[in-house]
């Protein structure tokens, strides 16, 4: 089981994620998010991540100018596109930067499932997340789950990661229902929005059966 801890913004919680066995660590570049990090801040954090742990930059409808600036400074291994980027835009970003791209696809009901297959043609990985409420400020990190049975037993052409409302107390059940081999958490290991808890990070990775769980 590979676990991604997203929205890290300080050395203490980043170290906690690394020590507990996270396979991915995520930095959020989206000003409306309580987890937003500045480029310089992310650079400092990313430089401390050991080799072998994937450093992911989460962006929301970012333009090339921002991606150019961020990637010049921050040693990133994967781009996570979490906005309303079209499959064409996703393909363009992947070609332009030569980095693996993960696209978040929001799910509320069965009508949302075909989009997963469309994006699977142009990405390296999929992030299957709960669709945000209509007037939400944030495209993710809202602590909401979707009906996991919607994707039970489904497979796509690329690896995928389950996100949305996961917590230390429900992640094992989510994995059981969906067959996920990768999970992503942000708000589910926070005491207040944007403030990660080192103990909860370790509990989540253990509950998911991440590296130090077995």
From TrEMBL:
* Listed pathway(s): Amino-acid biosynthesis; L-tryptophan biosynthesis; L-tryptophan from chorismate: step 3/5
What keywords tag this UniProt record?
A: Amino-acid biosynthesis, Aromatic amino acid biosynthesis, Isomerase, Tryptophan biosynthesis
Catalysis performed (reactions): N-(5-phospho-beta-D-ribosyl)anthranilate = 1-(2-carboxyphenylamino)-1-deoxy-D-ribulose 5-phosphate
**Which residues belong to the signal peptide in this entry?**
none
Q: What is its EC number?
A: 5.3.1.24
NCBIfam families to which the protein is assigned, alphabetical: PRK01222.1-1
Protein name, as recorded: N-(5'-phosphoribosyl)anthranilate isomerase
Q: Which gene encodes it?
A: trpF
